[in-house]
Amino acid sequence: MPESHIIPWSDGTWTNAPASPSELPTGSEHLDVTAVEGSDAWRHTAYGFVHDTEHALLAPLTVGEAMEVSFRAPWDGQFDQAGVFVRIDDEHWIKTGLEYADDHLGLGAVVTAGGSDWSVGHVDEWLESEITVRVSRWADSLIVRARADDGPWRLVRVAPFDGQATAWAGPFLAAPTRTGLTVRFTRWERSAADTELH
What we know:
Blueprint: E1 4-6, E2 13-14, E3 31-34, E4 41-43, E5 50-52, E6 55-60, E7 65-72, E8 80-89, E9 92-101, E10 104-113, E11 115-122, E12 131-137, E13 141-148, E14 154-160, E15 168-174, E16 182-192
Antiparallel strand pairs: 1-16, 2-6, 3-16, 4-5, 6-15, 7-12, 7-16, 8-9, 8-15, 9-10, 10-11, 12-13, 13-14
Protein name: DUF1349 domain-containing protein
């Protein structure tokens, strides 16, 4: 992967404040974040509701850049989720990473342009791992990859994404059904976008 640069947690801005911490550390190696019960991100499709209450810590993401976020979580609550959030506005965003649902851990992405579109596949073997999600912004798309620990990268999604729009990205979590989900984010980095799809 291209040379990367650490993004300080304090460089990010929350879309919605989590239950904790109340202030972002400036020098900590990791960031422990506890979600508010009922937090989520979804628009319309299949469920009929709009949720804009996720906790996403965002910094600018331009065409030609990539972001990587690494994290660990205690996957045991229905719809517990964490990963990377990429946002243009309320109706145009992508969340990608892991979600625990129906007793399985899923790796996937929700691509939203007015309505949300969810793709997911089981990765139960990743339950105890440190997960890294990487998003690369191209002129017309967002490329999503993920891996467990130091394992091989998996291509998760190739999604259309407006290259002319101003966008932000960074770590996110949500806990739609319970209190007490705490995710430990261990790394937030920026680098050059991947140049090849395969």
